[in-house]
């Protein structure tokens, strides 16, 4: 449980840092106050990372994988983090919740920053929890 707590706390801190440091790359069209929007986005990211944790736990048939994660566990977090981020970004762009400024690098019309966020923050959080 301690490692899960460290994992999720690290994920929250990293996602808050990511959201606040990358906010300038967006046109926020939600009309939600900036700090509230970024806090809710970070909490949503942690929920998604927890779902990824539960998915890996289901595949490994236990929760103890977090004590000694294998390369395949990291790969799962990274690959499915990329997939989830891609689809969520496409959905939110199409709903008009935000748009990118010209400085945002894109791949397949999706911003590189949001595409990499879940994969990066989940993998780093797992590494932190095992340091």
Layout of helices and strands, plus pairs?
Blueprint: H1 2-22, E1 26-28, H2 34-60, H3 71-94, E2 98-100, E3 106-107, E4 110-111, H4 112-129
Antiparallel strand pairs: 1-2, 3-4
Helix pairs in contact: 1-2, 1-4, 2-3, 3-4
Describe the overall structure:
With 131 residues, the chain is mostly helical. The protein has one domain (2-129). It is 69% helix and 8% strand. The chain is built from four helices and four strands. The protein has helices spanning 2-22, 34-60, 71-94, 112-129, and strands at residues 26-28, 98-100, 106-107, 110-111. The protein has a two-stranded antiparallel sheet with strand order 1-2. It has a two-stranded antiparallel sheet with strand order 3-4. A hairpin with a 2-residue loop joins strand 3 (106-107) and strand 4 (110-111). The chain is globular and about 40 Å long. It starts with a helix and ends with a helix.
